[in-house]
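Good morning C.,

I know you're traveling, so I'll keep this short. The sequence:
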Amino acid sequence: MNRRSLAGLILINAVLLASLVVAGFSPQPAAAQFGGAGGDYLMIAGDVTGRNSQAAIYIIDMRSGRIAAILFNGSNNTLEIVAGRNVSEDTNRPANQR
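The tokens, ready to paste straight into the viewer:
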């Protein structure tokens, strides 16, 4: 390897490193939906104990405190809404009334 190709490789590596540093220090916020009419949502997904082909998806509306539990069946690609609750009401209710 001669000096010219070594210098070219060093220059390319320096440019790539600089672009990686710039991209690492300037993250863009993630947006999954239009924020004008919707809310702030949190989605948690995971396996369901005792159900091999199904996964649970919990979607929480952070503004209203509502949560929806949804099952995804991988064998036939269908969604089944299991339940919905208002978490903010549940947390404000006394323990003996839950």
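Safe travels,
E.
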